[in-house]
Write a structure and sequence with these properties.
10 strands, 13% strand, Endonuclease I-creI, alpha+beta, four-stranded antiparallel β-sheet, 11 helices, 2 domains
Length: 328
Amino acid sequence: MHITRGTMSFAKDSKLQILEKPIEDADCGQAFLSGLLHASGTITKNSEGIRVDIVTDFKEVFDFLNTLVSKLYGEKLTLEISDDYVINKTTYYRIKFPVEISLTVLRDCALLPPNGELTFVTNIDSNIVADDETKKSFIKGAYIGCATSSIKLSELGSQSPTTGYHVEFASHKREFLEDLQSLLQHFEITCKIATRKKLFVLYLKDSEAIKDLLALIGAEQSVLDLSDEMAKRDLRNTVNRQVNCINANINKTVEASLKQISAINYINKKIGLESLPEDLQEVAVLRLANPQESMDELLKLSTIKLTKSGLNHRFRRILKIADILRGN
């Protein structure tokens, strides 16, 4: 299944990469379906019977899921959209399972409680994620179903502010996220759970952990994109630190020069520069002639054989004389 990617969010782009690889193994397909339903599934009951749906703003999952369900159950899904599903300018789609297979799907995905109530269980069944491959497939389904990211890829020369590194899974079911957290920790991926209003959020903020997650679920291009982004930001931060350091040094040079010139002008006004010792007259004239130069540049322009320390010492003497004349 080949999908053409355009300009979109980092999370959606990574989801498309997952969908490019079909799931051949039936157990992995079941685990993927279970993860997706845990993350974004709903159960409805009407005159037609019991139906399970998936509500998502990621309609590209429909073709992938339709192929998977056809392979597992021999049935086709339908895609529905209405104005009611437009929230905050985001369009939501309802992927509808046939009534004929909905209960079977729920049981196969270990989503119904033992008492037979029509509600999703909140825990992940260990039989669905019995080995590493089914664990990975479940995480893929959960990622497709409820993962978002604030990561924004930038251009190398861009000066626009960039966000941090953040990927999260949001759900109303804390137990589901706690079990998902355990699955990720099984693969040594560190993540945390927080509460946000009426939602629970499982989040990753460490860039290396996010890369590990993306690699685990088969979004290799996003791993490369994130590594490239990290390198760009590191370079930009290094350049900014260097620029800030240069600016700080320039400011120090300007401030020192202004103090020296002020002192020299005050001395000239009060007693005349000719009253200064000859060695101080030379550096005073040198500074007045080159008000913007640093101490290193003054040394290059000077005909006097001085060290930087010696030049600094002479300016300190000039500043002291000016202070005395001012009565300080």
